[in-house]
Amino acid sequence: MNESLNLNQPVKDMGPNELKAYATLGGKQHDEANKELERRWRSYDDMLPHDEFVSIIDKAARESSV
C-alpha cells in the first residue's frame, strides 16, 4: 500500500486509490468479524441444536437493503 493514502478523511473526498484501499480494509474487517462470530457460535456446539451458522452481520446488511 502507498503510505500517502489517507483513509481517515470523509469518503466523498477520497480518490480512486483511497476508495479501493478503504473497501479492501472494510472487507477484511467484515471477514474477521464473521470468523470470530462463527468461532463463538461453534464454541456452543455441544449445547445448541446443530444449526448452520448464519452471520448476523450479513443478515443485518440484507435487511437494511430491503
* Approximate shape: elongated
Rounded average pLDDT: 82
SS class: mainly alpha
Overall domain count: 1
The main β sheet shows up as:
none
- Measured as a percent range, the helix fraction is 55-70%
* Unreliable stretches: none
Number of helices: 2
- Beta-strand share of residues: under 5%
H/E series: HH
Number of strands: 0
Radius of gyration: 17 Å
**End-to-end Cα distance:** 35 Å
What does this entry look like structurally?
This protein starts with 15 loop residues before the first helix and ends with a helix. It is 56% helix and 0% strand. The protein is elongated and about 50 Å long. The longest helix is centred in the middle third of the chain and has 27 residues, at 16-42. The chain has 66 residues and is mainly alpha-helical. It has one domain (15-65).
Outline the secondary-structure elements.
Layout: H1 16-42, H2 56-65
State the gist of this model.
This protein has 66 residues and is mainly α.
Main features:
66 residues, mainly alpha, 2 helices, elongated
